[in-house]
Design a protein that fits this description.
4 domains, 7-stranded antiparallel β-sheet, mainly beta, 3 helices
């Protein structure tokens, strides 16, 4: 059993009585300050009493000065100022643990607060306080939160035991001793924090624990954008229990807290604010290194869709926009990624937007879209197909988008490795052939999963997967039919007016071929006839004796010469 003098002066022990639940007057009660035993206890000193043994104080052993009664797991130990007291000076209500590894004591280093099971046994030394942590901080409140628009700080008990917070101090960068430091556990305010419980402290307001609000128990200092929030065990300890180094987010949509749901991990900007509840991730590191080039293979962030002419019914309200898509299976850190109007390494000044700057989107999760409106808002998330709408994961009203204009013949490029002058940028994607020059169409990938090449898209889909139908090309006129005026009339061809155009065209083609064949045959017959007439004339002009013997017409020579019909031909 351990006694502590928490005062600033030495206290006399002579005549005090210590007993278990048997009560004052039992034959095994211990009377302190007997001869040969410690008679006083110095300021801040401990007295360790052993059963059937010694008393230990300041490293000195006093044999035979311990207690005789046994301590049971459901015992009550009582300390009386003297034997005439009707009620005890102090009582260990709820004692004890029944364990060889834990003890039952006060959850403080100064003897204040209530009793609880302690995970670390410290006989003759200060109790070890289970770690209460600063879990989340918001330097800008919003009206819809429990603190009704005020700054707030959240404490969390990650242990399996209730912890006394009485006497703990919460400070800003001004430190211990400032007039606006918050002393926890004051009258009317929460004095203990249950296992895995949260204590939400509002500026100039209440302290909220679970569903109970404690008016006037919040803190008085303001949380600045570069403040340091610290938690101390008491005003005597220079070393804090916890510090929110690097605070804060300077945003109405994010907070600054631990990147875990159990109070562990380092502080980061959290994209989801959870006052009075477990933190959620992922958190975006303030300045992570750019993704190594090897992570780009086989897939990367891509430019998914671009509109070089705004439309009033678009989510960007008439402004030009660029949509980035993460088709990979991993979250991409955006610091070090740049959207460039043109390409790096060319002549002249290159207009570009560095992604992942402070107070702007820090990462893009798998399957999510990043829509950037020129000189406007930035949206992170993904909308379902059709006309339905779901809340965006994140929205950044201003200061995070590009300012350059997108020309109809522009090339929009996406690079990694652009955060440091010494790094070598790597081209991730480029919109070769951009853009459409129309407020009704866009220029994007012909797929819903980010694969394939770019094309003009007839359906704009900022924040949604791309539509797979390209704009229809203008109709191509049919080539004119061969001029066959005499044959083109359905009446002359014997085709009724109910015949289809294809049937009429087929008939025209067949008749045309027949006419050509008949014309060719007629020409050939005329040529043959003319040749025959010419031969007959030649035979008639020559004498019969002059004819060569081989010229015969299959008949006697007299028959041929006597043919009087040849000249009339």
């Amino acid at each position: 059993m351990e006694l502590l003098n928490p005062t600033a002066t030495e206290a006399s022990l002579v005549g005090m009585a210590l007993i278990d639940k048997n009560g004052l007057g039992h034959n095994k009660q211990l009377i302190l300050g007997k001869t040969g035993c410690p008679s006083s206890l110095g300021a801040g000193a401990y007295l360790l009493l052993c059963r059937d043994g010694s008393a230990v104080s300041g490293g000195t052993f006093y044999p035979g000065c311990g207690f005789e009664f046994g301590i049971q797991s459901k015992d009550t130990l009582e300390l009386y100022t003297n034997l005439s007291m009707a009620s005890p000076f102090d009582v260990t209500t709820g004692c004890c643990t029944g364990s060889t590894t834990t003890s039952f004591g006060r959850n403080s280093v100064d003897g204040s607060g209530g009793f609880a099971e302690l995970s670390s046994r410290t006989p003759g030394a200060p109790n070890v306080i289970p770690p209460i942590v600063i879990n989340e901080v918001a330097d800008r409140g919003i009206p819809s939160e429990p603190c009704a628009g005020e700054d707030w700080i959240e404490l969390y008990n990650p242990t399996a035991l209730a912890v006394s917070i009485t006497g703990m101090l919460l400070t800003d960068s001004n430190g211990i001793g400032h007039t606006r430091q918050l002393v926890l556990g004051r009258a009317g305010c929460p004095s203990t924090l249950a296992s895995n419980a949260y204590l939400l402290l509002c500026r100039d307001g209440a302290a909220i624990m679970g569903r109970t609000s404690y008016d006037g128990c919040g803190f008085g200092f303001g949380v600045g954008g570069t403040d340091t929030i610290a938690l101390f065990a008491d005003n005597q300890h220079a070393a804090p229990l916890d510090v929110a180094t690097g605070c804060c987010s300077k945003s109405l949509t994010s907070s600054y807290g631990r990147h875990s749901a159990n109070g562990s991990g380092s502080f980061q900007i959290l994209r989801v604010r959870t006052p009075g509840a477990a933190n959620t991730g992922p958190a975006a590191p303030a300045a992570p290194p750019p993704p190594p080039v090897e992570q780009i293979i086989p897939s990367t962030l891509i430019i998914n869709e671009v509109a070089d002419v705004g439309a009033s019914d678009d989510m960007c309200a008439g402004g030009e926009w660029i949509e980035i898509f993460n088709p990979t299976g991993a979250t991409w850190a955006l610091p070090g990624i740049a959207i460039v109007d043109g390409q790096l390494g060319g002549r002249g000044t290159v207009k570009q937007l560095q992604l992942g700057t402070p107070q702007c989107p820090q990462s893009l999760a798998p399957g999510k879209l990043l829509v950037l409106c020129m000189n406007g808002a930035v949206f992170v998330g993904r909308q379902p197909n059709g006309n339905s709408f779901v809340p965006w994961d994140e929205t950044f009203p201003s200061g995070c988008s590009f300012s350059f204009r997108i020309a109809t013949t522009d090339t929009i490029s996406l690079y990694s490795g652009t955060s440091a002058p010494s790094s070598t940028p790597a081209l991730l994607d480029a919109t070769v052939g951009c853009c459409t020059g129309s407020s009704a169409t866009s220029y994007g990938r012909m797929s819903a999963d980010g694969t394939g090449g770019f094309s003009a898209l007839s359906s704009r889909s900022p924040g949604r997967v791309n539509a797979l139908v390209p704009p229809s090309p203008p109709p191509t006129p049919e080539p004119p039919s061969p001029y066959l005026a005499p044959l083109s009339s359905p009446i002359s061809l014997g085709v009724t007016s109910s015949s289809s155009g294809n049937d009429q065209s087929g008939v025209i083609v067949v008749l045309t071929v027949l006419v050509v064949i008949l014309a060719a045959v007629a020409i050939a017959l005329v040529a043959i006839r003319k040749r025959r007439v010419a031969m007959i004339k030649t035979v008639k002009m020559q004498s019969s004796s002059a004819l060569p013997a081989e010229i015969t017409l299959g008949r006697p020579s007299a028959t041929v010469i006597g043919d009087a019909r040849a000249p009339r031909a």
